[in-house]
Every structure is written in C-alpha cells, then in structure tokens.
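Input structure tokens:
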C-alpha cells in the first residue's frame, strides 16, 4: 500500500526549521509522502528572515497541477511564505492588508481547518471590522475561536501559545503564573480543549508549520486506513507531537529561536535491513572480542597440528558436555518459536549438534577416551563450561526468543568463521600432512554446517529489523557477553586436568 500523500503549498526556509523543510520532516516522521509547491524562497535562519524571493503565482499553479495530475493526495496543507499565516511569533505582521482580505474572503470559506495564533485571529477580525474583546482567560479565548470560525472555515484551531494561562485558566501576568497553554478547536458545534504544560524554551522556530503539517498527516493517515475522520483526534495527536518536539529540541542549533526535534517519534535502525550481522560484527563493542575469538591461538594450534594432545582431549570432553547444553538451549529456542521455519531451524541445529557430538566421540575414541568415561557420574564440567552453558540457558529462560538467538549466535557464527580462515591458512596442516586435529576444521566448513549457519543468520535478520534501537543495543550486549564466554572456553587454562 502506498503511503498517505500530502501536498504542501508553502515557502521554503533556508535554515530548515520552518516552511517546506519542516513540513517534509513532519510528514516523513508520520510515514507520509510529501509533495510540494514552493511559494517563495527565503534567506533566513533562527535569528530572522533576511530576504524573500516570491515565486510567480502562475508557476506555483503549475507546480500544483504537475503534482496532482500525476499523484493524487489525501490532504493539502497551505501556508504563507513565512509559515505562520499572517503574524510571526515575534508579533510582526507578514501580510499586507489586501492580502489579508483576499485570504479572509477567498481561502477561509474553502478551508477545512484554520490554525491561527492569537495575534493572527485578532488581525482577521480587525480586517473584517469585527469588534472583539481582548482575551483575559480561557472563556474569552473560546469566544475568539468562535468569532474566527464565523469567517468561513469548517473548523478553527486557536493556538494558545501566545497567552500562557494560570492554574485558574486566566491570562498569566508573571512568569511564575505561567502553568499551561490551551489550544482550542471549534467546529461550529463543539469545543475541543487541548491542554499542555507551559514550556519554557527558545526553540519554537517553525512550530506553526509543524503543527499544521502534523494535523494534515494525521488526517491523511485516517483517510488511508478508512478510519472515521476525527479532527479532534488528529489535532490532539499533532499538539502532543509538537510539544514533545519542543521538549526534545537540540539546544545548540542556531543562535536564536531554534527548530524543534521533528524526529523524536522516529526510531532509526543503525543498519540496512538484511545486513544486521555485518553491522554487528563491525560494532565497536564487538570488533575486539570477535577478533580474539575467531583468531584464538587454540584454534590456530589445532589447524597447524601443534596443539598439545592433553589440551585437545580436555577440550573435547568439555565441548561434548557443553554441546549437550547447547542442544538443550536450541530445544528451548524451538519451544519459544512461533513459526514453523524458526522451529525447523532450531531442530536442524540440534541434528547438526548430534552429528558434531558423534564426531567428538570419534575423536575421543582415537585418543583413548570412551563415551562412558565422558559421561561417568563423577565427571565434572570445567568452570568455563559451567559459566558459558548456564549463561546461555539463563538468557533462554529470562529473555525472549531473539535474545536467546543472540546468545547462541557466537557459537553458530564464530566456529564457521574461524574454520574458514584456518581452512585457507597456508600454515594449516591437513590430515594427509599428519594433523590429527584437521577434521575439526573440516567439520565447520562442511556444507551442512554452512547451511545451518545461513538459516540461523536469516532468522536473526528477519526478526532484528523489528526491534527498537535501544533493544538492539541490549541484544548486542548479550552477543558480546556470550562471545567473551567463547574466548574463555578456548583459553589454554580453561579446562584443567581433573
């Protein structure tokens, strides 16, 4: 399904905090596709507008026609060159009188929603020669919204940011009295009051643009999903979005009124979907320990045939005991799986572990170690084996399926990577060259193991892209800890003689 489409007709802000640039950020943050018709170019920053280059109206019309003749839209957001309709945050009037009149007489009657701030609302009423009472509290603001609604739009959202209120909803006269702001939505029948805590922040550049675009985005989303149109819901969500954007704004963008944080509600994955493992193995917290693991001198000594036989025998015994727990853990992963491919993947890994254990027994027999000797009742697991196997099982019991996969991943991925490196190493010795450990390398470059690794990688890739960035960091930490356990398992003093 294509994303909701919003056409924005507005001016450009060279500093990126307001205008079309802000509109597009807001729409992207809401999952909408933005089309634009540029009414003007501005030279501006957080300190103010230096100059404006107005687009000829006929060319604006061509932009609109070009967009709508090819791509239909779900909502249209219209703004003046400086984003706020007529009066800036500082109180400066941005439109000449005849433009205000044209706006009031031609645009307001066809507008679904008008979003004036308080100075803009009063300017519209003055232009229409309508007497109004200067607001002194919430009730006066409601009256003001109703009077502006009478000028023609289907609904009015009177933004209350210019008049902070006291806890009793009266106009605050001192900073200490400023406790809240109230935005008032009036549709000709009902009032919707959206109350927010008063925020002390200089970073409010482009809030008018951002709020209107967020409302347009929410209405477009409602339309696309066939949700009954609810202007109060769309507006409330937009107000919360902008408020949080102010709260999380970056303090050092610009010397004046800085932009809000348009992407506070967006979680950005630090990797391209389908390439998490690549990202994982290049992660700063992984690189060092992964190199220690996959280039461990124990495995290198096996591949070159120089490992002392006693160390290899102790390793075989402990690895056999560990593989029993590894199989148990994969069985737990199968239990925690919710799809047949995931269950099948765990089952295939267990079958490979079974074949790997048979290889171990074959090795052990060659070195005079029987299965009965390995499994005798008084056989003790080394502390390294206990620590690693119980850590993985604990993750399996206390965490979700994906965390368990991350705890298992170092064993699954690392043996294959180490074996591939050693298989190509010019200093490695094969069985024909007298290396009695070479079959260990061959086991982990074999097709069945490579296929099992591929299935495991694909499952992790398919699930990791659904996680939040913070959860991904937690999962990477599990991977790092399990990798540290792998390093210790290969250390020469990890499995001493009993």
């Amino acid at each position: 399904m294509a994303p909701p489409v919003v056409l924005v007709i507005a001016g450009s802000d060279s500093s990126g905090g307001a205008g079309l640039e802000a509109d597009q950020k807001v729409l992207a943050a809401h999952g909408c596709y933005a089309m634009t018709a540029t009414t003007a170019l501005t030279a501006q920053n957080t300190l103010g507008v230096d100059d404006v280059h107005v687009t000829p109206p006929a060319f604006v019309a061509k932009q609109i026609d070009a967009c709508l003749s090819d791509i239909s839209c779900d909502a249209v957001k219209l703004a003046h060159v400086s984003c706020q309709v007529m009066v800036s945050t500082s109180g400066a009037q941005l439109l000449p009188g005849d433009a205000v009149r044209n706006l009031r007489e031609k645009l307001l009657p066809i507008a679904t929603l008008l979003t004036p701030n308080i100075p803009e609302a009063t300017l519209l009423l003055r232009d229409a020669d309508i007497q109004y009472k200067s607001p002194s509290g919430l009730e006066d603001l409601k009256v003001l919204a109703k009077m502006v609604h009478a000028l023609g739009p289907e609904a009015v959202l009177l933004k209350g940011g210019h008049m902070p209120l006291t806890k009793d909803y009266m106009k605050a006269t001192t900073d200490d009295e400023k406790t809240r702001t109230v935005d008032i939505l009036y549709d000709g029948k009902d009032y919707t009051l959206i109350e927010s805590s008063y925020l002390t922040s200089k970073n409010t550049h482009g809030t008018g643009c951002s709020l209107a675009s967020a409302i347009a985005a929410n209405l477009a989303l409602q339309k696309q999903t066939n949700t009954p149109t609810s202007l109060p819901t769309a507006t409330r969500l937009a107000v919360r979005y902008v408020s949080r954007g102010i709260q999380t704004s970056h303090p050092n963008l610009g010397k004046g009124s800085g932009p809000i944080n348009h992407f506070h509600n967006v979680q950005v994955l630090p990797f391209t979907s389908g390439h998490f493992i690549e990202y994982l193995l290049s992660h700063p917290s992984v690189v060092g320990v992964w190199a220690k693991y996959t280039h461990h001198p124990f495995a290198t000594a096996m591949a070159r045939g120089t490992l002392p036989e006693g160390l290899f025998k102790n390793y075989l015994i402990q690895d056999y005991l560990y593989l029993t727990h590894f199989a148990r853990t994969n069985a737990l992963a199968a239990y925690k799986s919710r799809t047949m491919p995931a269950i099948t993947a765990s089952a295939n890994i267990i079958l490979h572990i079974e074949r790997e254990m048979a290889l171990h027994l074959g090795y052990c027999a060659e070195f005079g170690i029987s299965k009965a000797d390995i499994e005798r009742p008084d056989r003790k697991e080394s502390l390294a084996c206990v620590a690693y196997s119980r850590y993985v099982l604990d993750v399996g019991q206390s965490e979700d399926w994906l965390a368990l996969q991350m705890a298992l991943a170092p064993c699954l991925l690392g043996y294959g990577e180490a074996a591939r490196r050693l298989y190509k190493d010019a200093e490695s010795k094969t069985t024909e060259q007298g290396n009695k450990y070479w079959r260990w390398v061959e086991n982990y470059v074999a097709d069945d193991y490579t296929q099992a690794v591929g299935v495991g990688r694909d499952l992790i890739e398919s699930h990791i892209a659904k996680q939040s960035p913070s959860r991904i960091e937690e999962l990477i930490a599990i991977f790092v800890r399990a990798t540290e356990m792998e390093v210790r398992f290969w250390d020469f003093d990890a499995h001493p003689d009993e």
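The radius of gyration is 33 Å. Residues 276-490 form a domain with the Heme Oxygenase; Chain A fold (CATH 1.20.910.10).
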